[in-house]
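Subject: design request, 157 residues
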């Protein structure tokens, strides 16, 4: 993912030290809820939902919609918050350490044809729910939560 300027500014002061950040995931379904939008990451080739970092002062749902626009060139409507979790600590190739609080939203497609709209992804496309590419446990779980119809957000204990 492209590193936001505020993170680059922080890194000048803290180096590679662990940085706690807030992020968003958007599980984007088409209007019929029979297809999910996935993007293929440029860095590792994995298929994922839309993800990104929340900018300082930005509302999480606004951040998720912005990320859908930036990563896949589409407009979405946030339906509801579906999952809150802390992701495992990660170390980037340059040595930077980060850990994310992930706020996952169910989103519905409004307009636009998905395409890799920035350099973070090489593909953006719809998949039928019965014909998905391999997904990590996290993204598979979040898709199942989105499809469950559960109205309240879930969280790990």
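Subject: RE: design request

Done. Sequence follows.
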């Amino acid at each position: 993912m492209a590193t936001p300027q505020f993170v680059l500014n922080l890194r000048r002061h803290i180096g590679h030290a662990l940085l706690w950040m807030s992020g968003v995931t958007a599980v984007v379904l088409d209007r019929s809820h029979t297809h999910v939008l996935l993007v293929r990451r440029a860095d590792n080739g994995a298929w994922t939902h839309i993800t990104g970092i929340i900018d300082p002062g930005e509302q999480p749902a606004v951040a998720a919609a912005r990320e859908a626009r930036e990563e896949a060139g589409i407009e979405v409507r946030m339906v509801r918050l579906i999952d809150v979790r802390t992701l495992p600590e990660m170390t980037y190739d340059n040595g930077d350490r980060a850990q994310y609080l992930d706020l996952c939203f169910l989103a519905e497609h409004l307009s636009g044809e998905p395409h890799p709209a920035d350099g973070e992804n090489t593909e953006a496309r719809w998949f039928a729910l019965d014909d998905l590419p391999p997904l990590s446990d996290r993204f598979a779980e979040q898709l199942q939560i989105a499809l469950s119809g559960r109205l309240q957000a879930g969280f790990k204990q």
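The CA atoms of residues 89 and 99 lie 5 Å apart.
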